[in-house]
Amino acid sequence: xxxxxxxxxxxxxxxxxxxxxxxxxxxxxxxxxxxxxxxxxxxxxxxxxxxxxxxxxxxxxxxxxxxxxxxxxxxxxxxxxxxxxxxxxxxxxxxxxxxxxxxxxxxxxxxxxxxxxxxxxxxxxxxxxxxxxxxxxxxxxxxxxxxxxxxxxxxxxxxxxxxxxxxxxxxxxxxxxxxxxxxxxxxxxxxxxxxxxxxxxxxxxxxxxxxxxxxxxxxxxxxxxxxxxxxxxxxxxxxxxxxxxxxxxxxxxxxxxxxxxxxxxxxxxxxxxxxxxxxxxxxxxxxxxxxxxxxxxxxxxxxxxxxxxxxxxxxxxxxxxxxxxxxxxxxxxxxxxxxxxxxxxxxxxxxxxxxxxxxxxxxxxxxxxxxxxxxxxxxxxxxxxxxxxxxxxxx
Length: 395
Description:
The chain is mainly beta. It folds into 2 domains: 4-250, Jelly Rolls, CATH 2.60.120; 320-393. The chain contains 4 helices and 22 strands. The chain has helices at 119-124, 269-274, 286-291, 301-307, and strands spanning 4-8, 24-26, 29-31, 57-62, 80-85, 89-94, 100-109, 126-132, 138-144, 155-161, 173-180, 190-195, 198-199, 221-222, 235-239, 242-250, 320-326, 329-336, 344-349, 359-363, 373-378, 388-393. Strands 3, 4, 5, 7, 11, 12, 13, 14 and 16 form a 9-stranded antiparallel sheet that branches. The chain is elongated, with a radius of gyration of 27 Å. The N and C termini lie far apart (57 Å).
């Protein structure tokens, strides 16, 4: 039996009525679903894609979007995508004798519950199966070895990939799967997953595309099913509902756009990584990391990003250190840096109980010249007594 790759985007189910594709595509292969090949409204089932006659849909539709990590096919227009629904659809490939094969595609998935019952029949006959859980994380089905001795996996299991790979509901993501069929070390096919160019690892993954080192954590997983005499990528299955664009099957290396990846409140993930901040037992996602207080100074990470302070230094935070009167004018000092995203603003109020009672005195103020320095400004005389002052940074 040919082993297929199954991408589970809603509910995984495969029946005997699914027809096999009449066309077997060579690798490399690419399809952008653009107007040079397809008219809007075209149903691709019965052409390159195959499904249940009269029910399965793979309809080309108008849609534009902005990808986070770039498109798999860069030298093409991106005005049309494929929307699929109503049962599994398949695409056949001839991957015989290829050592490394990558599937790189844009996908807007429907979140799904774990496959169960008869749905698991298709999973058990696939080299790779995955679905996007209701929390936005990719889940992969893989084999597990009890030791580093090559051979049939002792068991199989689902693993949720939570290391920086959360997908927002209703959003597009760039999903990449790399299959390795090199049997020189062990007769075991292995795969790894990337989401928006981020290589996803898990404790039961392997550091390399072999099993000799043991599952010490890494991006490579053992394929749960393979055939030693037919170890190749032969079929891609899309089940459930979703949208697809720019599907590429290739033996080439995959490159990604250099666009920054962002956590909540606009905090660049790389900005946190550059400062030694990463997901851990306390902060399991980058969104939690952005909302958390890494250095326990009372200022969440996202506010320190705006203020230009150091989120790993408890003495570096946006704070007023003195307010004095010099020659009748208020002089304000606060900690800040040249790295603030936006200018500092100074505001005053006569009543702290009135939330909307703050008036901006000045903005766009000069900053200090180090990562933890003092800023100072002389302000005009306060129009009332008492006068309360505050420093703000606006996103």
